[in-house]
Design the sequence.
């Protein structure tokens, strides 16, 4: 009985999560720009394709998310392992602080810090500042997820590896890391999500060349209902959904 | 082992110093300065920003923020736990379900919030449906109040609860559950007395990842609360934009961070580290 | 030897390619040009334009105040020109590079905030009034937004000078009042209004006006104009009899810019009648460019919402920059309004 109930609940939960998206998708084909259905149309998708700003910002967002994701996941996994071995109150507090700080504060303080640093460095705001900011705030998420899984890890397996002559790094690489693989994947997923959706911090530290998708979307959305946004959302979901289905197929080969 | 650990921690130290340490120092400095006329900070040094926080006006905001964050977190735990349990038991389809959880959140948060506004408005989808079926006569005010904000927060942060919970539940030893069943425990008992305690780590990780951002949220309360429901996040945000009082905003956010840190210290178990 | 030659020439070519096409970085409000405005400029001049947008003056100021944001042309609102000039952020304009200055409306040729157009060129302008459903009895006063019968269906702008301005006007004072006592009265009026208020909304109010969720909203003429265009039988716009605020957005060049000539060319391009007219057609804003107005259809020129009569405009007041101490008071009052 339990599994049936659980499955039913899961179905309802997934419906809740996807309902707004479904609505957006339906109305992305609405001929009218208002929330009254007035016929099927691909008008908004055409408008989307012609919007140079939107396209460029999408590329920027993906680049930033990909680069910062890799860096944050690597640094975070290593840090979680190190913290698990022996606690570091300062680093842990720092990580926690970075989660607690309101985004506007992180953004303004990073902007001030960069402005100050640029007096000596002859740089200006740009993709590099955004990526650095993103790695910074993604790190704590990665560490939290991986540490949660490490706490359930049986250290005796690692010790056995060490007893058998493996170096500490080899023990980590060959024993612990494979165990951590699902958590690393979950953490990377989380970091990517956090990065690709960030508006506040990014808008403050972005430079002339680093307009991101959330920034463009925020501008559009502030003007009211705009079906181009529906089209954006539908494309993202459809694309990602396809990606997921394809990867599932490949795994089952 | 210690050398290895030092190397492993080094990148994070560097990152934290650059993206947290130095900027935080700047925020502390800001909180002790006076505001510039149109923008920024200037001399003289002052403690006025902190003394100003003691006003009852801001106390109400703090309480309201904690309340909304707590309710949202509790709802996330209640709604997220069964979902994470389901996914962890789903066998080969695990990754598919995980992706389904994450998928909505790869679209813009702003767009999703606007979707909810469309659903919740007086002339929105839900009210229109309810009225056409005859269940209600006047539209229900579902937008621009605390309820809408909580809904938005739960919707926005559910995956931050589900993912860590899943990571913990996935590693649950099934033989423990079999043992419980062998000893005569009913499924509900097994849940409460075996599964939940064993996944406490995941619940706490998830609760942190949800409660803290909820505490500092501002976009949700801005959009779904109609910019009327002022939470700490809105207060701070306003200081750095419309109200142009950076020092006060810095002091308010340092107070917020101190509160959250104190809370976490209170919640952590003896001998255990923060994270 | 061959490898070195190849490398040096490769580097030389790349740098040449990077610097051969001149650039310009323009930072504007969102939705303030026509879809092809920038592209046409690029084609005509060969200058590659990077176009970024912002949502508020404060956001723009936060980015450019450091003096090395990378932007060349920005669009501050009129009351920010004085402060930005005092902060040393603006470049004095070279009128000899601006050939289309006479396209400007005679009033905006010598605006009150920058009479010799030394720092800024007026771009678009508007007023703040009340957009409302026609089913309501005549709306002609700010007190309509304090009407208890409309509770839950009233919105105000999410903008401190606008909200305080409306309250001050309701009480019979100037929007630029410098009397702390008057400002406090205005703040109390705003707090009183919160019980009746649906939300603080800017441009989002448009769709809700059209849908009927909002009965009366404090709105910019632009927003109201767009809403009325979608539902002309149901919506209307009022210029309150107590008076109202006027605003203008201007074009300016940042002092940090190293592409001053290109920046002037862009501003001059936007001053061209056909370009400005095309922008107005796309954005439905009110332009300060008289030559452009002459090119527009009569319906646009006679639009009472965007181009009201002189008698109506006489009741309007331009926002002025405030001295530091009063700015602090106003901002603190805004925080208190929002927090209660």
Sequence:
């Amino acid at each position: 009985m339990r599994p049936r109930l659980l499955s039913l609940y899961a179905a309802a939960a997934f419906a809740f999560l996807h309902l707004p998206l479904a609505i957006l998708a339906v109305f992305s084909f609405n001929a009218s720009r208002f929330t009254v259905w007035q016929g099927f149309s691909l008008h908004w998708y055409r408008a989307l394709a012609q919007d140079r700003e939107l396209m460029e910002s999408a590329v920027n967002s993906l680049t930033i998310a990909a680069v910062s994701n890799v860096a944050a996941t690597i640094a975070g996994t290593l840090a979680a392992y190190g913290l698990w071995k022996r606690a570091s109150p300062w680093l842990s507090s720092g990580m926690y602080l970075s989660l607690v700080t309101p985004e506007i504060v992180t953004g303004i303080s990073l902007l001030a810090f960069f402005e100050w640093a640029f007096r000596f460095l002859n740089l200006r705001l740009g993709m590099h500042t955004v990526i650095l900011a993103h790695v910074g705030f993604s790190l704590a998420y990665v560490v939290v997820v991986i540490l949660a899984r490490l706490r359930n890890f049986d250290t005796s397996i690692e010790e056995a590896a060490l007893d058998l002559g493996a170096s500490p790094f080899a023990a980590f690489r060959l024993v612990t890391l494979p165990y951590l693989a699902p958590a690393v994947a979950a953490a990377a997923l989380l970091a990517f999500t956090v990065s690709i959706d960030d508006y506040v911090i990014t808008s403050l530290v972005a430079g002339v060349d680093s307009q991101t998708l959330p920034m463009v979307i925020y501008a559009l959305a502030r003007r009211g209902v705009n079906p181009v946004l529906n089209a954006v959302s539908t494309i993202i979901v459809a694309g990602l959904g396809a990606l997921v289905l394809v990867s599932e197929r490949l795994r089952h080969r | 082992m210690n050398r290895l650990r030092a190397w492993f921690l080094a990148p994070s130290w560097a990152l934290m110093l650059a993206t947290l340490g130095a900027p935080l120092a700047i925020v502390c400095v800001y909180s002790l300065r006076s505001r510039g006329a149109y923008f920024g900070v200037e001399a003289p040094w002052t403690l006025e920003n902190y003394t100003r926080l003691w006003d009852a006006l801001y106390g109400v905001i703090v309480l309201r923020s904690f309340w909304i964050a707590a309710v949202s977190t509790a709802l996330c735990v209640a709604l997220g736990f069964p979902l994470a349990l389901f996914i962890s038991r789903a066998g080969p389809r695990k990754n598919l379900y995980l992706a389904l959880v994450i998928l909505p959140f790869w679209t813009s948060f702003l767009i999703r919030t606007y979707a909810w506004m469309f659903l919740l408005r007086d002339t929105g989808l839900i009210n229109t449906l309810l009225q056409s079926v005859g269940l209600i006569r006047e539209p229900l005010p579902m937008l621009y109040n605390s309820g809408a904000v909580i809904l938005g927060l739960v919707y926005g942060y559910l995956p931050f609860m589900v993912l860590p919970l899943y990571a913990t539940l996935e590693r649950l030893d099934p033989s423990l559950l079999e043992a419980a069943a062998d000893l005569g425990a009913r499924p509900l008992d097994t849940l409460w007395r075996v599964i939940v305690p064993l996944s406490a780590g995941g619940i706490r990780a998830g609760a942190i990842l949800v409660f803290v951002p909820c505490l500092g949220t501002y976009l949700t309360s801005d959009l779904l609360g109609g910019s009327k429901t002022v939470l700490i996040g809105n207060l701070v945000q306003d200081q750095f934009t419309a109200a142009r009082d950076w020092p006060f905003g810095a002091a308010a956010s340092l107070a917020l961070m101190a509160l959250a840190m104190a809370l976490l210290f209170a919640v952590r178990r003896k001998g255990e580290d923060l994270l | 030897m061959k490898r070195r030659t190849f490398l040096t020439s490769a580097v030389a070519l790349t740098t040449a390619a990077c610097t051969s096409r001149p650039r310009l970085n323009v930072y504007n409000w969102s939705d303030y040009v026509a879809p092809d405005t920038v592209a046409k400029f690029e084609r005509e001049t060969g200058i590659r334009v990077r176009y970024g947008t912002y949502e508020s003056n404060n956001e723009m100021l936060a980015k450019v105040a450091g003096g090395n944001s990378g932007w060349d042309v920005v669009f501050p609102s009129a009351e920010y020109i004085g402060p930005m000039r005092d902060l040393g952020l603006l470049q004095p304009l070279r009128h000899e590079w601006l050939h289309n200055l006479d396209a400007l409306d005679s009033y905006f040729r010598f605006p009150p905030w920058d009479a010799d157009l030394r720092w800024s060129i007026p771009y678009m302008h508007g007023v703040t009034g009340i957009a409302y459903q026609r089913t309501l009895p005549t709306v002609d006063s700010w007190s309509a937004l304090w009407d208890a019968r409309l509770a839950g269906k009233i919105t105000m702008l999410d903008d401190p000078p606008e909200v305080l301005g409306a309250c001050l006007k309701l009480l019979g004072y100037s929007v630029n009042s410098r009397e702390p006592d008057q400002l406090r009265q205005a703040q109390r009026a705003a707090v009183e209004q919160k019980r009746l208020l649906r939300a603080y909304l800017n441009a989002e109010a448009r769709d809700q006006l059209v849908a009927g969720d909002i009965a009366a909203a404090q709105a910019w003429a632009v927003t109201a104009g767009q809403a009325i265009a979608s539902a002309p039988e149901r919506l209307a716009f009022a210029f309150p009899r107590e008076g109202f605020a006027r605003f203008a957005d201007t074009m300016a060049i940042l002092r940090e810019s190293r592409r001053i000539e290109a920046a002037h060319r862009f501003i001059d391009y936007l001053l061209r009648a056909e370009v400005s007219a095309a922008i107005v057609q796309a954005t439905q804003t009110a332009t300060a460019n008289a030559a452009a107005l002459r090119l527009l259809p009569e319906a646009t020129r006679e639009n009472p919402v965007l181009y009201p009569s002189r008698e109506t405009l006489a009741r309007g007041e331009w926002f002025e920059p405030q001295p530091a101490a009063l700015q602090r008071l106003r901002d603190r009052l805004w925080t208190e309004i929002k927090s209660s």
In short: The radius of gyration of chain C is 22 Å. Residues 3-125+247-306 of chain C form a domain with the D-Maltodextrin-Binding Protein; domain 2 fold (CATH 3.40.190.10). Chain C has 15 helices and eleven strands. Chain C touches chain A at residues 25, 30-31, 35, 39, 50-53, 55, 59, 62-63, 66, 68-71, 202-204, 206-207, 210-211, 230 (CB under 8 Å).
